[in-house]
Amino acid sequence: MSELITAELVDLDLSAETKQAAARSLAERMAASGRVTDLEGFLADVAAREAQMPTGLDGGIGIPHCRSAHVPEPTLAFGRSAGWRTPSRSAASPTPTRAASRSWPR
User: 102 and 36 in contact (C-beta within 8 Å)?
Assistant: First the structure.
């Protein structure tokens, strides 16, 4: 079994305007690392899971996840939006986006 998360699965400058775009960006990293065998099939599984119950949390955090036949091993990808601001830097800054995608083989 390989590591659950690797440097290739982390994007600290994620540029995505929507939760779907954030999920796609992280899924593309997972596919490029060989952690997803069918990108569109995997994204369909993520969307189906999200339709059952949204995985977003307050503060711009999303944790989309699913069980998928398109994931050969347990995997975690992490993204932080390029516009991230710490609370001490600017209280008026827009809500950041942070997303983590957890996926397990079916």
Answer: no
Please choose, from the candidates 47, 53, 55, 52, the residue with its C-alpha nearest in 3D space to the C-alpha of residue 27: 47
pLDDT in tens, 24-71: 999 999 999 999 999 999 999 999 999 999 888 887 788 888 899 999
Task: Read off the tokens for 76.
Answer: 């975690």
**Strand duo 56-57 + 61-62: pairing:** antiparallel
**Torsions phi, psi for 103 (to 5 deg):** -145, 140
Backbone angles phi, psi at 86, to 5 degrees: -75, 155
CA 42 to chain CA centroid, Å, is 12
Helix (H/G/I), strand (E/B), else coil: 37: coil
Q: What single-letter DSSP state applies at residue 29?
A: H
* pTM greater than the 0.70 cutoff: yes
